[in-house]
Amino acid sequence: MRNITKVAIRIGLVSALFAVSIACSKRPSDDAIAKDIQSKVAADPATKDSDVQVTAKDGKVTLSGKAKNPAAQQRVDQIAHEEPGVAGIDDQTTVEPEAAAAEQAAQPMESTPPPPQEKPKPQPIIVPAGTVLTVKTGQALSSKTSQAGQTFLATLAQPVSVEGRAALPAGSTVSGTVVTAKEKGKIKGEGQLDLALTSISVRGHSYQIKTGVLSSTVKGKGKRTAATTGGGAAGGALIGGIAGGGKGAAIGAGVGAAAGFIGGTFTGNKQIEIPAESALSFTLSGPLTLPPPAE
């Protein structure tokens, strides 16, 4: 029984060695592998102009030399991998620098989109000092009945633009204050009524303003004077709707470079009366800054 087992083992070993021998006899020699790859590289249109050398040892192929361009280098490597019997590839080929640079230059460069351009921020509107605001009073004012510190309301009668941009639309609500109100005495003393604007409402927002004071007086003997204070150009002028002329009557007045003029501002009892809806003109004594209008 033992002899039979030994015989079987020997037969198996002999068979294995025979199979290995057959397999080795079928694999091409290193010299045949190298020559076949070399001939294919020389015949291929993409690689025939490349100076590439091929060697093989134990089935491992080494590629060296210079390829014409990167595409030729890749093709040589592909030819070597497709060769039967090749156990590995060591690609040591290089590409001629001029060819590599030319191919890189020929490739389309990725276009970088230009950075988005920021829209210029809208600038605030500055209504300069010296701008005239013409308003219509919403109530009657008098040196006899008005009190110093009293607030009165008016509406902007004429729109105001700055450098072509709408700044203050007509109809804007304006607030003012009675700076001085003094009744004229029957025998002596003078009557006085001084007015100034303090704020304006534009598009739902209220802004503080400063204007020259519109001042008018009447002397004890009936002598009438009118002046403006606050420096610079005229502080204001009563230009229409004066007492004795009816509501909204335009009897006229001018605003000079140094002072305003008020005419017909006295009733029969020599008190200073400004009826409702009278048109008054005030001059800004300081700039008014408004935010840019919403687009």
Notes on the protein architecture:
This protein has 295 residues and is an alpha+beta fold. It has 2 domains: 26-100, Histidine-containing Protein, Chain: A (2-Layer Sandwich); 125-290, Type IV secretion system, VirB10/TraB/TrbI (Lipocalin, Beta Barrel). It contains 4 helices and 19 strands. The protein has helices at residues 2-26, 30-43, 70-82, 97-106; strands at residues 51-57, 60-67, 88-91, 94-95, 125-127, 132-137, 141-142, 151-156, 160-162, 165-168, 173-182, 191-202, 205-208, 213-218, 224-229, 236-240, 273-274, 279-283, 288-290. The strands form 5 sheets. Strands 6, 8, 11, 12, 13, 14, 15, 16 and 18 form a 9-stranded antiparallel sheet that branches. Strands 1, 2, 3 and 4 form a 4-stranded mixed sheet that branches. A hairpin with a 2-residue loop joins strand 9 and strand 10. The longest helix has 25 residues, at 2-26. The protein starts with a helix and ends in a 5-residue tail after the last strand. Residues 224-268 have low confidence and may be disordered.
List the helices and strands and how they pair.
Layout: H1 2-26, H2 30-43, E1 51-57, E2 60-67, H3 70-82, E3 88-91, E4 94-95, H4 97-106, E5 125-127, E6 132-137, E7 141-142, E8 151-156, E9 160-162, E10 165-168, E11 173-182, E12 191-202, E13 205-208, E14 213-218, E15 224-229, E16 236-240, E17 273-274, E18 279-283, E19 288-290
Parallel strand pairs: 2-3, 2-4
Antiparallel strand pairs: 1-2, 5-19, 6-8, 6-18, 7-17, 8-11, 9-10, 11-12, 12-13, 12-14, 14-15, 16-18
